[in-house]
Design brief:
single chain, alpha+beta, Nuclear Transport Factor 2, Chain: A, 5-stranded antiparallel sheet, 5 strands, globular, disordered N terminus
């Protein structure tokens, strides 16, 4: 083999060797890593939630966006002090059932699917924890209904809903007021059982 041919073969073998590839990798410019996407804002989460309710998927919307532990804490406060973990889990199940039944009411479902959503606005409150109030209008045949969701930001920067309502009538204060009037004769779990039973009958 000629000296030129031998030299070319040597260069090819070196270029194909693991050592050469490693050195090339070390000398190659580092690719810039993309910064992680910022978590959605309270306003963005509320828009997605309201849109999912309107599009006829309230069950998944409630399960996806609500934090039922926060809802229970807000509604019952110190009344949960002696509640066992098992009873609390059952209360969450009953609360989820109740909220889902409210949103799957045929009359409300029909109204939601034909309505439009507009005027979303959010006001965030510094914490800790950070909270937000999001208001928007549900427009149905010319009538404007003011809807509100109250949210709290979790440790992982995600916004979760802890209360919701319309025209100033919110879920948590309603539960709190009714339970406080009966706290001397029933436990929080018994109250939630009764609330769920009423929802099934309505």
């Amino acid at each position: 083999m000629s000296r030129l041919g031998s030299g070319i073969l040597t260069l090819v073998l070196l270029a194909a060797s693991p050592v050469a590839r490693a050195e090339d990798g070390a000398n190659a410019p580092q690719q810039q890593q993309k910064a992680p996407a910022a978590p959605p804002t309270a306003l963005q989460v509320a828009r997605k939630y309201a849109r999912q309710l309107k599009d006829g998927d309230p069950v998944d919307a409630v399960r996806r966006y609500w934090d039922l532990d926060m809802t229970l804490d807000s509604a019952f406060g110190k009344g949960l002090t002696n509640v066992t973990a098992a009873d609390r889990q059952e209360m969450k199940r009953l609360l989820l059932e109740y909220v889902e039944r409210v949103y799957t009411d045929p009359n409300l479902a029909a109204r939601l699917t034909q309505a439009t959503l507009e005027g979303f606005r959010a006001k965030e409150h510094e914490g800790p924890p950070r909270t937000a109030t999001v208001n928007y209008y549900l427009i149905f045949k010319g009538d404007r209904t003011l809807c509100t969701v109250l949210m709290r930001q979790s440790a992982d920067q995600q916004w979760r809903i802890m209360d919701g309502g319309a025209m100033g009538r919110m879920l948590v204060p309603g539960i709190r007021k009714e339970y406080n009037g009966q706290a001397d004769r029933m436990t929080p779990l018994e109250f939630m059982q009764e609330l769920a039973t009423r929802a099934r009958r309505s």
